[in-house]
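Lecture notes, continued. The same structure-token format from the folding unit now serves as the input rather than the output. Read the line below as a description of shape only.
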């Protein structure tokens, strides 16, 4: 009786009456421990004290040791230590509710060490509360080996904390069983070794996908539609998210829809190789809505394929707002009707996202040279690319036309605005000088709107053939869009199928 009172008196120093009654009521008389156990609350080795000798003899059998959490405890010791550790976590501002079914360390000191280690990585208490299960990972057996491997494959130590914030589940993973196979898979796709860290920082969830499931299926499907296997690696580096997309619900429906608009798979494969982020466009919520929006602004359905091939990003833009804004500008300042605006967008879809100040500079230059606003509108509808021409180059080309080309009328520029899209030094001057030597007089289109080979054939001919105009915008020079990639469109006049034309436009972007 005296020993029982002593035990109760000792426990009341640590627990209140309600917790104490729960602990004592769980004791079963027939169970014995197999080894000493650390008492988490008092930090004493119970095997060296007689205080709990009777209770120790009654504890249940030990559970098998956990690979992750290591320390073996009896059921009662787990209950005691869990209460104390949860109180510690609450004092730190950590909500331990999700840890109810998780095996926790045996002492507060071990848990404190984990919390402090995570904080040194750069994680805050809020980050831990976002994913409190990370507190169940052993530093020695899980966290340190995983972080060491991540650093080895290219994730900078200064960004390790950021990586863990993005994908805390990585702390539970086995380096050999789970991480290494994913890295080998990426290397097998020709992802460069120095790019592995960059790829994982962009999409850390890759480490959680099954190799024989989503990732390999996505790659196999893309190769089946014509993507070169050697281009998969660069695609992953640029946009690794497609490896986590399901073929049946995301990739294939998008491909099928674009094919239904008139884009051959050969063209789509080239688009995806250069811009794999297109695979991430939401088919129902963005792509289809944007196609419907284009049609509502007067774009012809038969022109959609060519537009998408030229400027595939148009499928992912907030298109309605951009088209409304540009149409207002074209109507108010350029005096171009909605139908003319639709033809402009068909010929140069990049205009939907072009800054209005950029558009107005070439327009103001042409108006200042004596060309009427009606004629400027005609020029833009016929060749929208002139509004993206660099103003300095445009001035040089205009002054050469006026001073060196024998007083040609401005009307010829109105009829052939593509003149401003050709390079003055590499095409206009050398070709015009050859015409001068031959004594040939011809239109701008006759000597500019053709390939070098065709131009030489024309010079050797004994007659001047009639002007044969190809596409409305057919040039041999370079057009540089402000804030975008440089565009180079071939000017060959040979007959070609629609697929081949779209293909050449696509690969030139």
């Amino acid at each position: 009786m005296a020993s029982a009172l002593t035990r109760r008196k000792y426990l009341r120093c640590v627990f209140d009456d309600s917790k104490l009654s729960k602990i004592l009521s769980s004791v079963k008389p027939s169970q014995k421990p197999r080894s000493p156990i650390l008492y988490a609350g008092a930090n004493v080795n119970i095997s060296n004290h007689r205080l709990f000798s009777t209770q120790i003899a009654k504890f249940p059998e030990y559970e098998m040791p956990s690979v992750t959490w290591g320390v073996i405890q009896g059921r009662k010791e787990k209950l005691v230590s869990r209460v104390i550790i949860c109180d510690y976590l609450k004092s730190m501002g950590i909500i331990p509710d999700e840890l109810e079914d998780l095996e926790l360390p045996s002492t507060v000191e071990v848990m404190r060490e984990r919390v402090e280690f995570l904080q040194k990585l750069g994680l805050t208490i809020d980050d831990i509360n976002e994913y409190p299960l990370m507190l169940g990972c052993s530093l020695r057996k899980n966290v340190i080996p995983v972080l060491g491997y991540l650093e080895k494959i290219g994730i900078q130590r200064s960004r390790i904390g950021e990586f863990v914030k993005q994908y805390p589940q990585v702390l539970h993973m086995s380096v050999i069983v789970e991480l290494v196979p994913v890295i080998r898979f990426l290397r097998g796709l020709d992802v460069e070794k120095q790019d592995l860290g960059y790829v994982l920082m962009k999409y850390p969830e890759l480490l959680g996908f099954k190799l024989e499931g989503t990732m390999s299926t996505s790659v196999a499907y893309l190769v089946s539609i014509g993507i070169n296997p050697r281009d998969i690696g660069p695609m992953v580096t640029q946009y690794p998210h497609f490896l986590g997309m399901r073929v049946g619900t995301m990739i294939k429906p998008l491909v099928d829809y674009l094919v239904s608009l008139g884009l051959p798979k050969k063209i789509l494969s080239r688009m995806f190789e250069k811009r794999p982020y297109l695979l991430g466009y939401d088919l129902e919520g963005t792509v289809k809505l944007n196609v419907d929006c284009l049609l509502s602004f007067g774009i012809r359905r038969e022109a959609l394929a060519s537009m998408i091939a030229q400027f595939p990003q148009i499928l992912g833009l907030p298109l309605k707002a951009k088209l409304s804004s540009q149409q207002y500008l074209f109507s108010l300042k350029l005096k171009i009707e909605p139908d003319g605006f639709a033809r402009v967008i068909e010929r140069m879809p990049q205009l939907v996202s072009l800054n209005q100040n950029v558009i107005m500079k070439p327009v103001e230059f042409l108006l200042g040279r004596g060309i009427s606003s009606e004629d400027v509108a005609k020029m833009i509808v016929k060749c929208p690319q002139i509004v993206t021409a660099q103003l300095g180059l445009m001035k040089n080309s205009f002054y050469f036309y006026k001073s060196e080309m024998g007083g040609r009328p401005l009307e010829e520029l109105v009829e052939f605005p593509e003149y401003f899209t050709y390079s003055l030094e590499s095409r206009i001057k050398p070709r015009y000088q050859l015409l001068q030597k031959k004594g040939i007089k011809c239109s701008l289109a006759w000597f500019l709107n053709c390939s070098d080979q065709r131009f030489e054939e024309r010079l050797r001919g004994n007659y001047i053939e009639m002007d044969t105009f190809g596409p409305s915008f057919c040039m041999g020079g370079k057009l540089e869009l402000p804030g975008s990639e440089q565009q180079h469109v071939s000017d060959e006049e040979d007959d070609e199928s629609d697929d081949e034309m779209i293909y050449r436009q696509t690969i030139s972007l």
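Point for the exam: The two ends are 91 Å apart (CA to CA).
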